[in-house]
Amino acid sequence: MNRHVKVCVAGDIDADAAPALSDVVARVVALSPEHVFVDVAEVDFAGSVLPNFLAHLAGVLPRAMSVTVCRPRPRHRWILEVTGMTQILLISAAAAGQVPPVEDGSHGH
Questions:
Q1: I want to staple 90 with a disulfide (CB 3.0 to 4.6 A). Which of 53, 68, 82, 107 is the partner?
Q2: What is the structure's pLDDT at 2?
Q3: pLDDT value, residue 104
Q4: How far apart are CA 26 and CA 96, in angstroms?
């Protein structure tokens, strides 16, 4: 079975969002997906919590599973490049497609 998980984050991804993002990582891992799409198009502010969340997500998934960051804004793409996330994640300017959301409660505040 080809399992894909789509996580949509929105709002400010700062220290206040970190606990919710940790919960999202645990839920995603429990689903044992083959591919995870993280849509960040609705993220207003992204500090170090965003790359930390993505690194944590990529770090707990087996190597055969991939993580794609979808629709990052230019400033968010820059954060991903500066922090080295582009070396371990796929980046896509397109939406995650028709993959239905698994968790809508993963939004920042």
A1: 68
A2: 63
A3: 38
A4: 21
Q: What's phi and psi for 93, nearest 5 deg?
A: -80, -15
Which residue, 46, 107, 37, is CA-closest to 82?
Answer: 46
Residue 61, SS3 per DSSP: coil
pLDDT exceeds 60 at position 69? yes
Confidence of residue 100 (pLDDT cuts 50, 70, 90): very low
The kind and range of the H/E element at 31 are: helix 18-31
Which tokens is 39 given? 């849509």
Query: What is d(CA 107, CA 109) in angstroms, rounded to the nearest whole number?
Result: 6
Contacts of residue 68, defined as CB under 8 A and 6 or more positions apart, other chains included, come to: 35, 36, 37, 38, 89, 90, 91, 92, 96
